[in-house]
Structures are given as structure tokens and as C-alpha cells.
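Input sequence (323 aa), recorded before submission:
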Amino acid sequence: MATTRISLIGEAYDCVAPLFDGVIAPAGVEIVATRAPSPEAMRRQLTTWEFDVCEMAFGAYLIAKAQGADVTAIPVFPRRAFFHTQFVVHASSGIAHPAALNGKRVGVAEYVQSATLWARGMLAHDFDVDSRSIEWYVERSGADSTGTVLGFKPPADIAIVQTPGGKSVAAMVQAGELAAALAGSLFQRIDTPFPPDVHPLFADVVAEGKRFHAAHGYVPANHMYMIRGSLARERPELVATLYRAFCDASDHARGQLPANATAGQLYGNAYLVETCRSLSGDPFAYGIAANRAMLEQVARLCREQGLVKASPRIEEMFAPHLE
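Predicted structure, C-alpha cell format:
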């Protein structure tokens, strides 16, 4: 059987590392993997289009498709989190509940980032936070910004301010220059104390994660894998093989976990492990059917927040026959 070479770029998360490392090797396929932090991988692909498969944020993917890029995706989700629980606030802000973010200066990495997309959407839908009342400070710019690479222009009624000199929003919130920031896992480690005068927006992030899951039924994912459209059209059997290989890699990684660990360890930070320990079902399942509610919501959020003009049908987002 002839071997087909497939180029892949992205982060080698625990759940996909067996595929990156060659531990999982699909028959007839040679995976040529390039490890890169996900923001770098996405910007590189959107600039050069040199890879067959690339880890990609939902927002960037849907913007690229709306602009006519010949791409599709496979329903593999290597990173999940309750992203809104990753907001931190400065003590001087007086913010004691999410709705108090209205009208404030809030920092995020960049506007089109899918973690930011989810976080804004969760606050808007569950806590009456109006994104258009907030002054959003972003730290990524120019070639470091996925939005800039895509030529994305934010809605006119959204106030976006570049941080001075690209200063990190985490540093700005610690200095009291911002009321809050989506600091991500930088501050969200169980064994790491928060800096002075900084505390999480949600005092109990595990309880909030459980509340969100009970209300909505899923753990949000921010990335999937984008594939050349020509590959899906000309070699659908190869795309199906790649999808199965990602599933096999996840199963292999789960099998290597200690007996007392949970799959959350593979897909997020320590708080996600604790949050998902008692959740029913498989919060980290791949596939369209198991994730339809989540996928419909992320497509809706992309439209609501001005990333795309219309929400695509879920079947339009993924290669055929990958339920």
C-alpha cells in the first residue's frame, strides 16, 4: 500500500501527543508533525497555507471560511475549559459579580480568540454582561494577531484598545490598570497563589463550572482541526482515517492516566479536572452528534459578536460523514 504524507501543525497536547509522537500511526499515512504553540500555528497556516491539517480556533476558522478559504474541519476538540471562570479582577475595581464588568476596562489576548469568544458569550447569556459597554484591551497586534492576519475588522460599536507596547493584560490587571482580564491558566492553578490584589471573578470556579454544565450540558471547546478542502473532496477516506487516528490517540492517552485521574487532565488545567470529576457522560467526546449543542452555540456566538455575518449550519463546518 502506498503511503500518503500528511503535514500537521499544532500543540502536542496530551490527548493528541500519541499522534504527534508516532505512537499512533494510521495505516497508509505518514504524519509529518510540526509542534508549535496554537496561536503561532494558526497564524502560520493562515499566512502560508503550507499544512494539510492545522489546529484552529473556531472563530478564526469561520472567518476564513466566510472569506472563501477552501477549508473544512474534523470534529476533534483538543482543549476545553469553562473560559469565563478564567477572568480575574483587581481588588480596587470593586467587582464582586459578573454584571459589574459592564462599563469597565477589561483585557483579553485578542478579540477573535475563541477562549475570549466563549468567555464573552457566557457572561452575556448567563450574567447579563453587555460586551458593547466594555472597553476591551487586547495585547496581540500585527503579525502576532490572528485577527490582523485574517484582515478582520471588529464591529463599529465594539471598543477595542491596543495595550501600550503590547503589554500583557495579566500585567495590566496586576498593576490596577485594568479592572479585569481573561488571564487564562496563568493564574488558574490550584497550587499557585494569586498575586496580591488580584482574585478570580468567580470565587469558586469548580462550582461555577458545574453550574454551567448543568445548565448547558457541555464543556466548551475552543479549537478543532482545519483540513484542506481539496483533501476532503478528493480523499474522503483519508480524512476519515485521520479522524479515527485522533480518536485512537485520545483513547491511548486516557489509558495512560493513573487510576485516580480523570480525562480532564488531558484537556485542561487542574480546575477542569476537579470540575469534571463528577460530571455524567463523557464531557470530552469527539464527533458532531455528541457536541451539537456546543457547536451550535459557538457558531451563534461568532455571529452575535461580529466575527461572521451569519451562523453556518453545523454540517457546513465539518467534512462529511464524520458524525
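Checked by second reader. The mean pLDDT is 92.
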